[in-house]
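Comment thread on ticket #2218

A.B. wrote:
> Attaching the input chain for the structure job we discussed in standup.
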Amino acid sequence: MNSAQHLILSLLLITGFSARAQENLDAAGVADDVPAPQQSLMKSAASKEFNKPLFFDQLDNGVLLPPLELEYDLTGQSGKVLKIGPVVLSEQTFNFSLMPLGKAHPQISRVLTPTEKNDEALIINWPLEMMSSGSLEMISRTGAVLWQHEISELEQKKWAAQLQSWRGALLAQKVSPAELTTTGLFGSSFAIPNFKNAGSPFGKLNEIFRFCLTQQVGRGYSRLCSQWYGNQKIENKVVLGKARVDATTPRVLLNNEESLPRQSVPTAAEGPTSFFAELATGESYEFMVQPNKLQLMDIADTARPGLLRIVGYDTRPLGRSVVLNPDQYLKITTLIGFESTIGDSRKFWAASLKKDDAKIYLPGQGGGIFKQRFELSVIPRRQARLYVHERTPTGTYNDNIRLFGRKLKEVTVSTDQNSVNVEKDEPSEFEWRFKATERGEINRSYLNLDYQGQKYRSYFEIYKGYPRELSARLSVAKSSADFVFMGELAYNQWFEDLFTWSNYWVSRQRWGISAKYFKSFNEIKVSTSGRTAPLDVLTVDLKYRFIPGLWNRDETLGMMASYQNVNFGVLTAPMVGGGLFWARSMPKLIDDVFNILPLFRYPKWVDVEFIYYAQSLDSNVTLNSSMSLNFHGKVLWTNNLFGEAGFGIKRYAFVDSVLNQKADLNTFYGTVGMGLSF
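C.D. wrote:
> Ran it. Output below, let me know if you need it in another format.
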């Protein structure tokens, strides 16, 4: 190594790590306890049946959200420690070590194979709050990239699962849990177990280098660079050590300008925020990202004095929070990629907020950490919260639908939208006519509350869908002897309820009707005698959903009764039958394939139906296993406009005893079309 670099290797000949998990996140900046809903309701209107809460609207309940701020501090330990919000960056929380995996923890060799014990592992620690994954590089003093390794989210999960597996195996061998806490190897962010076989030139280098971890998300990026490292041979082994180089002056650049070493500054309402900090020990952290705005849904007090509970969606704050609506797919569903791709994709979370220090920290889009302060005047009381029935729908076709709710008797409720009526015989229950005017959108309707002289504003959200569809299609069908070209019109309608009767099992969002009429453009062979005739068919279906919900949004299985009238020239066969249908959003695995093409990068809805026609409505006509199996899909380009395609098998077979003629047509068909939802 060049002596002009004043290089002195301080070798990292250690067999473990110091604790770092508590240093990464300064607990003083984050409320450490998330009150569960039941803990927040000492006196509540909630019951077993009425358990869906309304939210308190923060803008109308005395809560202001100032602009997001970037809070940092590079004054700790003479510039050797950087704090971004509550997250700490230092040589204790960001470091690299190369050692045999069997020596990375006092007990780990008990669960490793002989080969694994001797593998030289590169074990990495960095504050995961600053970036969760990225590209790891070894960079020379001249800036050349010597080596690169991708640390994807999947690789991160695999490493976390590997640590958990080792931890479980050691616990099974009676190793004390205290030895397996989030310190040392079990507190590492990531590791490359067989570093020598990862393509790294480490053993051949004769210059110093540093590790840099870069994360790119859209237009935002963040980058963590380590101290300078070098290598040295000791007893025929190449070891990794920190290199002592010329002293570094701590500095901060904010939006490309020299800035104070410690401050909290508001971010711009539009455009990205850029930040660069270099520590006295040589580490650096930089990012240029767009802050994520807090999507606040609810705030209220809790049973614990001085502690509030907030609910938001999408970007989760640092510290402890809980997801209120986690995905609940079966393992087999995720394994085969059959997750839903239509619906409310928002992930709601709950977190605690200290009343006397009301702030949370949010990650930016691709890195960075930003502070959101709360200016509080009136805090909604938890006892005033309203609840609606557990079977309250998440979607509707109509405005003014009836919702049934519950409140404390002391709470007075009113509305400026539609109406709300309190039951005279039961003053804790009310009927609310929900206002939903925007189709294709999530509608928010409000109630006004008065509790102990304090007024609040509360709301609930319901998606409003389109109950009707009209489409035109072109089809081609292949029979045993001919190609049949057809035009088709289709109409589909679903009902909110039956004549305002909203019984859950029988009425609400259960029933639909559809009608299809198609006619052939050419004559086709309809019998073994060679007779040809044009074909036209009218079909009318009555459908019942086993699972209530909205068409084009909520998955369901259902049954159907079908009327069909088939005309082959002079032959006419009216018939009825029954069958089943299944409808849902395009499964994720298949949706991802279609999304390769820009034309299909929109929500997609698929359905399949089977109908068997068992009964002729004409005593002179005898059916011969007439049936229909249809596969159908739509791509929803806009809220109103969709394209569609389908395929299937149809059999038209019957005998007219009066005309002494028989029709027997088996077809495989494909269809494309366009339609409107309204």
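A.B. wrote:
> Thanks. Noting for the ticket: The chain is about 5% helix and 50% strand.
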